[in-house]
Structure to design on (363 residues):
């Protein structure tokens, strides 16, 4: 069961104690933080917080004035307003301001809190998913308009040229124009495939316990041609580990990372190291190379859709590969990041946190 991180904001120590007691009855493993004012609560910004209980009256203002700042600090948290007196107008105003629910302190009970938290987390998760889908649709439409316009315009122009050259009897030029058209069609097809992969990177089936070595074996088969053509030297270290994962997704993630290491080698023979090691609640895999590297100012946003480095803009691609990697890592309840300590080349690490390593694995 996922551990809840709960923040209690109330200037009354007795009320905080009562809330803590009720919450530990229904969520005994929860991590509970207390704050006696809004400013004290905001000092915890950046720390994981899933649920917030906010008193309506605080020493530094009303909870109503604080809701927007709390939602900005913890956009995915569920916020509940509490007050010593029930009032329909207060309830209406706090809901409109962004709270998930409202409850008078006289109505507090373990059952009521459990119900509020359960329903609130479900609604919050659904709202977040809808927002992500809306962002995906917006980005999807942007790339369709921007990136597909050029190849489609080229195809239209080339078809007109082919017709003209054919009528003039210049078949050599017709053949050349057909070759250019084929390249434009291939570019359009590649873009569509990358979009489809990014929007729905999830494979069918359930998570499986597999050895890391079996994932590497699948990768060797998938990357055989790319490795042969590039002359890349790969060092694989599975460390004898196993992992609970969706194997096709992890293979795709690693294929994207290794493919980038080959693509952005900077003219050198790619030297790539793929290392698996135990993590706190699962597994961490690192992919390090000797390529052109990622400047520090780009390391945080390279996993956003359609983001590409200026220095690599001459390389083919759509900027969706690393964004797809981020979605796969998220599906595995993990994180993916570009190691800030790497001075030469690039090192990207990701975690898989669907479950602990099976008993008997190397730790």
């Amino acid at each position: 069961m996922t551990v809840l991180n709960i923040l209690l904001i109330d200037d009354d120590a007795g009320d905080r104690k009562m809330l803590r007691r009720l919450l530990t009855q229904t969520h005994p493993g929860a991590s509970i933080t207390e704050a006696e004012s809004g400013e004290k609560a905001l000092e915890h910004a950046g720390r994981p917080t899933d649920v917030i209980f906010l008193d309506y009256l605080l020493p530094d203002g009303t909870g109503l004035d604080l809701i927007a700042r709390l939602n900005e600090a913890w956009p995915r948290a569920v916020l509940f307003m509490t007050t010593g007196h029930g009032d329909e107008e207060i309830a209406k105003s706090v809901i409109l301001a962004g709270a998930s629910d409202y409850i008078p302190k006289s109505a507090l009970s373990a059952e009521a809190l459990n119900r509020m938290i359960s329903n609130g987390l479900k609604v919050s998760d659904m709202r977040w998913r809808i927002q992500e889908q809306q962002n995906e649709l917006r980005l999807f439409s942007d790339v369709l308009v921007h990136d597909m316009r050029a190849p489609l315009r080229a195809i239209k122009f080339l078809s007109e040229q082919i017709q003209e050259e054919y009528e003039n009897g210049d078949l050599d030029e017709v053949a050349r124009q057909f070759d250019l058209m084929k390249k434009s069609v291939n570019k359009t097809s590649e873009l569509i495939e990358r979009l489809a992969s990014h929007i729905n990177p999830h494979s069918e089936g359930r998570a499986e316990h597999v050895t890391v070595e079996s994932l590497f074996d699948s990768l060797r088969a998938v990357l055989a041609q790319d490795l042969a053509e590039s002359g890349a030297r790969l060092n694989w270290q599975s460390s004898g580990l196993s992992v609970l994962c969706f194997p096709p997704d992890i293979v795709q993630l690693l294929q994207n990372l290794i493919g980038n290491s080959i693509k952005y080698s900077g003219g050198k023979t790619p030297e790539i190291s793929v290392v698996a090691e135990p993590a706190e609640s699962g597994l961490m895999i690192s992919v390090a190379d000797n390529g052109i590297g990622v400047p520090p100012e780009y390391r945080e946003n390279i996993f956003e859709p359609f983001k590409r480095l200026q220095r690599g803009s001459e390389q083919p691609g759509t900027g969706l590969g690393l964004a797809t990697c981020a979605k796969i890592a998220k599906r595995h309840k993990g994180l993916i990041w570009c190691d800030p300590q790497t001075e030469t080349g690039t090192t990207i690490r990701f975690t898989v946190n669907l479950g602990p390593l099976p008993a008997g694995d190397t730790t």
